[in-house]
Write a structure and sequence with these properties.
alpha/beta; Rossmann fold; GMP Synthetase, Chain A, domain 3; 8-stranded mixed beta sheet; 7-stranded mixed beta sheet; 21 helices; 31 strands; 31% helix; 23% strand; binds 5'-O-[(S)-butoxy(hydroxy)phosphoryl]adenosine; metal ion binding; AMP-bd_C_sf; acetate-CoA ligase activity; ATP-binding; nucleotide-binding
Length: 659
Amino acid sequence: MTEQSPALDNLLTESRTFPPSEAFAAKANATADSYAEANEDREAFWARQAERLHWDTKWSQVLDWSDAPFAKWFVGGKLNVAYNCVDRHVEAGHGDQVAIHWVGEPGDTRDITYAELQREVSRAANGLISLGVTARDRVAIQLQMIPEAIIAMLACARIGAMHSVVFGGFSPSALRQRVDDAQAKIVITSDGQYRRGKAAPMKANVDEALAGAESVEKVLVVRRTGEDDVPWNNGRDLWWHELVEAQSDQHTPEAFDSEHPLYILYTSGTTGKPKGILHTSGGYLTQAAYTHHAVFDHKPGEDVYWCTADIGWVTGHSYIVYGPLANRVTQVVYEGTPNTPHEGRHWEIIQTYKVSLYYTAPTLIRTFMKWGADIPAKYDLSSLRVLGSVGEPINPEAWMWYREHIGGNRCPIVDTWWQTETGSIMISPLPGVTHTKPGSAQRPLPGISAKVVDDAGNEVGKGGGGYLVLDKPWPGMLRGIWGDDERYRETYWSRFSEQGYYFAGDGAKYDADGDVWLLGRVDDVMNVSGHRISTTEVESALVSHPTVAEAAVVGATDPTTGQGIVAFVILRGDVAEDQARGDAAIQELRNHVSKEIGPIAKPRQIMVVPELPKTRSGKIMRRLLRDVAENREIGDVTTLADSSVMDLISSGLKSGSDE
Ligand code: WT7
């Protein structure tokens, strides 16, 4: 548990609780009984949740765990995921209901009904088919938050092709790595994107990424910013609108096996190479839909929902696309940043569309706090009913601010713990049932089993801390790492192989009531603004620069982003000369990392050091570097090969950052 921030321990004295109002509880989707019902017969519980979907063929077995850790859920069942998210709502008479209130950053808007969405998705599906895309082919999507991103994902799902969405902020080489690993046949992107009021090119980056990428046959380009000089590769590139507008808006969806692959989504692991997390159809959609229904108390046709995530992350997959649309949501999708053109943009959108369910990340809540409570106070937020949080632990102070200044002390807050790998929410309060507690995700959902265990895999008692494990399979669980079964077993199932537990990589603690508190990662994964970045990945990017001999990276506590990336580098050759170059050299390194991985991985601070603290076996002691990065007194140095190294580091620090 060396990776925990000691500051988090202080939070566990939290004793405030907030019971649901009687009025909310009376109408809540979730019931207190569901825990016991699910406990009694877990598989029967999930089978009941699967009934929320339309199955062309019913399953013959709920769970096949005989080939653990490779799960099969709803064995023998067949369904079409896109049909479930779109067509069936139209067939049930809700074609005129708005599915998406899209808000562009410059202020343009577009409302898309379920009937329109059905036509758009059908056209796009026909377009992909015309390019020779068939079931199980991979389609990479790098798009900002525009309707085409959602339409493209659903079109893939409709024809059984797998999408691999790559966050728009990832660099060309990060995109290339993912395209190569997935062997994507098609890449879908746009000419450019609006960011903070300006149009930034996107297609040029994609071209750079794809130079010589052999698997890629076609690149589809959505026109968004409309510049004249979009670089074009004749024969490979096609305009999205030209392709799809020429297609029929009729397409008959085919039913696929419950275990048919739905998508790959890459996430950082403890090595430099991102893992392609594989999700399949029936179990995934079941849990995404159930959790969206129960955790957000979503009422179709009444609520207006808004999840502020980007589709480049799993939150966008499960809680913008699959769960909400399966539940016939009306949702806001916003293209831009929260302070463009002003810091009240989110509250203005909530007021305009009467958003009732709002799901965001602690890093953004802390940013809103910094901007000041007077900003949301200018808007009518009375439509809000439920507030959600995801991505990292939410500190009680931010939780209380969220409750008071956004939720008017009236809305239950759901702090939802889950991961790319879990596919859906696993630990969260249930609004209308749970007495919520600032800072704690509290309790596994009905049908989910999680435990906090010690090193030996034994569950710790109340007040005890250890590792978070998932001790029973769940419907939305990953089905593996794309192309690497061994890494799948090794990463998640080897730490507690004797017990057969899934190792989540998070530290956790039970408080005196038995509620779960998440304490952050226990591996070499950092969490910056709710985004997972591995220390190794950033270290590799640094040493790929000609001036760097060695690098060590740590996640240091940051008041806004949760963690900030702090790098320690040893420069090559004539260090004195490099140091003379000073800040310019450090800025160049920061930009280099941003270029190699993406702006989200840009170190907050880089310190040039003469040595790195290592154990006798050569392992870098990140704990000591974190002490330096967080301006703490340096901890125990007795296991260092050379104990004078820390003095050397502390004395000759040369660092640079934006601040
Ligand atoms: C890691 C997963 C799940 C979608 C967003 C991130 C951390 C996530 C919480 C929470 C404390 C949280 C964990 C987890 N995390 N939600 N409510 N409380 N920590 O998905 O990129 O796969 O990251 O995010 O450390 O392991 P991801």
